[in-house]
Amino acid sequence: QVRLEESGGGLVQAGGSLRLSCAASGRTFSRYTLAWFRQAPGKEREFVIGVNWSTGTSYYADSVKGRFTISRDIAWNAVLLQMNSLKPEDTALYYCAASPSTANSARRNRTDEYAYWGQGTQVTVSS
């Protein structure tokens, strides 16, 4: 069983930055693919970024390329999401998700491809 906990959300002005963290307990990430999804009010949950923990291979949604970066904190068994140049349309509840890795698993972008989910952390970007 993998338990995920997100942190780092908050309120920021447009153009600002935030860093989210997803920490795991119960198991290490070594054989898992991790991803960040987000869900804005009235919208479906959408894929943001995925990373294969063991290879470091990552995959980004077009809407965040050049602005968001995913990285691994191996010592703390956590995955970090650095968000720069934030826009009001980035406002959403951000979720961390995990599933066992396979080839090209960083490209998984559907919610039903992930077995484990955190509770989410709110990101609000004011204009």
Précis, in short:
With 127 residues, the protein is an all-beta fold. Helices cover 0% and strands 50% of the residues. It has strands at residues 3-7, 10-13, 18-25, 32-39, 46-52, 58-60, 68-73, 78-83, 92-100, 116-117, 121-126.
Report on the structure:
The strands form 2 sheets. Strands 2, 4, 5, 6, 9, 10 and 11 form a 7-stranded mixed sheet that branches. This protein has a 4-stranded antiparallel sheet with strand order 1-3-8-7, with no helix packed on it. The termini are far apart. The protein is globular and about 40 Å long. It has strands spanning 3-7, 10-13, 18-25, 32-39, 46-52, 58-60, 68-73, 78-83, 92-100, 116-117, 121-126. The chain is mainly beta.
Which overall shape is indicated by the principal axes computed on the Cα atoms?
globular
What is the number of helices?
A: 0
Give unreliable regions as ranges.
none
Oligomeric state of shown chains: single chain
Distance between the termini: 40 Å
Rounded mean pLDDT is 93
Helical percentage: under 10%
Proportion of beta-strand residues: over 45%
Task: Write down the secondary-structure element order.
Answer: EEEEEEEEEEE
Strand element count? 11
Largest sheet: 7 strands, mixed
Q: Cα-atom Rg, whole angstroms?
A: 13 Å
